[in-house]
Amino acid sequence: RDISKYFEREFNTTLSAETISAITDRVFPEITAWKSRMLDLVYAICWLDAIHYKVKDDKGRAVTRAIYNVLGINKSGHKDILGMYIFESEGANFWLDVMTDLQNRGVRDILICCVDGLKGFPDTIQSVFPETSVQLCVVHQIRNSIKYVGNKHQKEFLKNFKTVYGAVSKDSALAQLDMVDEKWGEMYPMVMKNKGVFPSDTALEKLVYLAYRDISEKWTMPLPNWALIS
Fold first, then answer.
1. What is the pLDDT of residues 67-126, one digit of tens each?
2. Cα–Cα distance, 81 to 156 (Å, whole number)
3. Is 217 contained in some domain?
4. Residues 31 and 46 in one domain
5. How many CA atoms lie within 13 A of 41 on its CB side?
6. How much is the pTM?
7. Number of Cα atoms under 13 Å in the Cβ half of residue 170
């Protein structure tokens, strides 16, 4: 529906939401093949994170879904999304399914996994890949957000954002995030990354996959100075 409105506004062309949905349905076989493809034996670094979205269930209620993403750097220094998985919530048990799937698709070792502070996460990773070093870090998330903020606002934004990742509980963090969103969301929407309610899990999966397919076209070169690292 958002795409339909965009076409009407920008190109003065009417394209129904149903038509757009039918077009994107063509990527289903492509998604299935991509999710089951074999992977490299070894990855130098993997970032594992879950993003939460609102999705309508079969009764039309808005429920939370966690989409698990694994971004990997292979031995030649190239980036790739190794997989994406949709679950009802985030937890170490669900991440175990993710790690097992990577193993089943050919991965035998990951040198470094970068993750958040989810309880039990490091143990879950090392139960499948016992030689992997696990790095707990929030810095990459802060850096990814701050690049969208103007220089003159960065200091103040970081001060406000610290109340979110420094909160003592999830509820407190969500409350602080709402306050940050109220102050900065309109000025810097890319930082807050708000999404509406997706009509289904399938719609969410299509969106994430199409975004991956678009960005992966730019991942043609290894990371800078990778030869020095390897």
1. 889 999 999 999 999 999 988 777 778 899 999 999 999 999 999 999 877 788 899 999
2. 33
3. yes
4. no
5. 0
6. 0.65
7. 4
